[in-house]
TrEMBL record, chains A, B:
<keyword id="KW-0238">DNA-binding</keyword>
<dbReference type="InterPro" id="IPR009057">
    <property type="entry name" value="Homeodomain-like_sf"/>
</dbReference>
<feature type="domain" description="HTH tetR-type">
    <location>
        <begin position="48"/>
        <end position="108"/>
    </location>
</feature>
<dbReference type="InterPro" id="IPR001647">
    <property type="entry name" value="HTH_TetR"/>
</dbReference>
<feature type="compositionally biased region" description="Basic and acidic residues">
    <location>
        <begin position="36"/>
        <end position="47"/>
    </location>
</feature>
<protein>
    <recommendedName>
        <fullName>HTH tetR-type domain-containing protein</fullName>
    </recommendedName>
</protein>
<feature type="DNA-binding region" description="H-T-H motif">
    <location>
        <begin position="71"/>
        <end position="90"/>
    </location>
</feature>
<dbReference type="Pfam" id="PF21313">
    <property type="entry name" value="EthR_C"/>
</dbReference>
<feature type="region of interest" description="Disordered">
    <location>
        <begin position="1"/>
        <end position="47"/>
    </location>
</feature>
<dbReference type="GO" id="GO:0003677">
    <property type="term" value="F:DNA binding"/>
</dbReference>
<dbReference type="InterPro" id="IPR049397">
    <property type="entry name" value="EthR_C"/>
</dbReference>
<dbReference type="InterPro" id="IPR036271">
    <property type="entry name" value="Tet_transcr_reg_TetR-rel_C_sf"/>
</dbReference>
């Protein structure tokens, strides 16, 4: 039965040494394309629409229920297409979510200019806040899909892990550069690894807060306050040199 | 079939307004007990052993595979007991993981003294590091179970959300107190909400890093370095008053 490919019932396959299963159901990197289906046919207008209906259906299901409940059958039913159609575009639910995350990584790359531009020394918190808001905006648009990426990465799925690291690395490097530069300005030396390690603490706070239910943050402290605290923390990491 | 109760196949039940399903399969708060089974019988030595075999089996499965693959049948098989035995102790897989997380919350409460004791003004980073190490130690012992808690909380499951907030709240309050106190020492005022909001940024960084695969952190930057950066960030949040 086609649902088996979703991998939700296959208890015998274990993740050993970082995950055996994902290697089996995800194709090699260069096989990916949103331009071609799994038979190598170039997508026409109809193909693109069907593929989009499927990814939209997956987003909808992830918003309404848990990733534990996601299957190719459920996604196809929601998109009102056949399961066979699903497998024209994706090898599995994981494959689909990987492709969706690849597209989101391109949006995350648009955060880099927020970090490479020179920040206002008089009010760096204002520049930090712009970065924080843009980061949270991308997450709020793709929250469930990004949560799936992080869960898979954290559980040792090598493809998702690689994608997560590759996506965060430019942000960590640019924040690390700012930390290093400001230390130098004040006559202090900080190693590249130490500056990146401090940057990772900041991106970790950003990711954890972005994964939280917005309703909960608003009930407890308010999103504006938390975003300002994130910006404050980034500024302290860069400008408080002991 | 008994597996249905694990909730992994029930695609029709949707989480609306913060999750309808969990209310159905989790008993009222005061029903919980590790002293009694679901028939109200007090656990004897054999009952305690069976219950422990089941929770150990769940931990084992979560370490080896994904929460997407967890079911009452799989856990019972791993523990070498019948599925009927599983339902003597737990209403569902979620119920089991909720009970496991309740027990872990008591361990997390042991972090409070690390924050209430006075920190060495000459070297607060040493005290902050002790807290960071203890926090990460608890997470590394229960990582998969705590990741499940956070995933359920983030997806709007009200019981897990409540447990997560109740567990973190004392830590956030104590870190907030330190931030507020230090600001006062330097003649600055910071509101309780602002100080707690900054504390949340810190616990968020701690949680996100604790959820990461340790192998990945060691490959990228090294756990010691990242723990020191977390301690450094906590110290900056408390002691850098602008």
């Amino acid at each position: 039965m086609a649902t088996q490919a979703s991998g939700t019932k296959d208890l015998k396959k274990k993740r050993v040494g970082g995950g055996a299963r994902p290697r089996a159901d995800l194709p090699a990197q260069d096989e990916y394309s949103t331009e071609f289906n799994k038979h190598g046919q170039k997508l026409g207008e109809k193909g693109r629409r069907t593929r989009e209906a499927l990814t939209n259906a997956a987003r909808q299901l992830l918003r309404e229920s848990s990733p534990l409940d996601l299957s190719a059958v459920a996604i196809s039913r929601q998109a009102e297409v056949s399961s066979a159609s699903f497998y024209m575009y994706f090898n599995s639910v994981r494959d689909m979510l990987y492709q969706m995350n690849e597209a989101i990584s391109e949006e995350i790359a648009e955060l880099v200019p927020f970090l490479t531009r020179k920040w206002d020394d008089e009010d760096p918190a204002a520049d930090a806040l712009k970065f924080v808001k843009k980061f949270q905006e991308i997450w709020s648009q793709h929250r469930e899909v990004l949560m799936f990426r992080n869960m898979e990465a954290d559980l040792g799925n090598p493809q998702f892990d690689k994608l997560w690291r590759a996506t965060l690395r430019p942000l960590v490097a640019r924040i690390g550069d700012k930390i290093k530069e400001q230390a130098q300005t004040k006559g202090k030396f900080i190693s590249v690894l130490d500056s990146r390690s401090r940057a990772v603490v900041l991106t970790s706070a950003l990711e954890r807060i972005a994964a939280c239910d917005v309703r909960v943050i608003n009930e407890e402290l308010g999103m504006d306050r938390v975003q300002n605290s994130l910006a404050d923390m980034i500024v302290k990491a860069i400008y408080c040199v002991e």
